[in-house]
Specification:
With 233 residues, the protein is an alpha+beta fold. The chain contains 6 helices and 4 strands, in the order αααββαααββ. The chain has helices at 25-28, 44-51, 58-83, 118-133, 146-166, 171-201; strands spanning 102-106, 109-113, 208-217, 223-231. Strand 1 and strand 2 (109-113) form a beta hairpin.
Length: 233
Amino acid sequence: MNTSASFQGGSSPFDFFNFDLRVPVSEKVPNPEYRPLDFPQPTQDADLLRQLSFIPGLKEILMIRQVHALEHATVWVLSDSQSGQPAKGKATNVQPDNELLGGLSTEHGFYLYGEVNISDLRRAVALARHRLTNGEWDLAVHPRCGTNLSVAMLLTAGLAVGVHLLLPFRPIEQLIGLGLAATTAAELAPDLGFMAQRYLTTAIPFNLAIENITRTRDVWGRDAHFVKVGWQE
């Protein structure tokens, strides 16, 4: 996660896939026992690993998807706590996002960048995992995730190549086509990026056990906290 994009406003052809992070799931769902129809089952990754254990690297892929979701949710929880809780009984329409916080996921855990008290971080990680595994799966998606940037770059490149091949090789037509390609990519990329996060690059951390949180440096020498996790069935 390269934890900066803004929430899309207005209508979009992909609105039926819109995972609205501006309103917490607990406010959108009056029944706390409710689960969305596509909410993942707690044992699905463990079952998949048992059935396909012969595939090299499968466990690491499953781990990093769950770690990625936990990283995003932790940033959301920390941002919410640092912005101040709304008064009891009053709903907020905008999910706060502290742009000074960022993260990087690995199969062993995730690095959290930014100034944060380690005690607050411990509470935030535990709360993030609890909220994710109890229905607030929107927390797994973050607008500043590197997935969104990757999707935008691939979409822009694909559309640009398509326009270049389809339109006449004259400067005016090519320039107009490239402008349309860039505009279309900018319009579709946020929704497609959220979809990619939801279905490809994150997963609910049902199998993660939080082992330790330490102050450290990453491989580039940057100060960070590292949240170490382990796999549990």
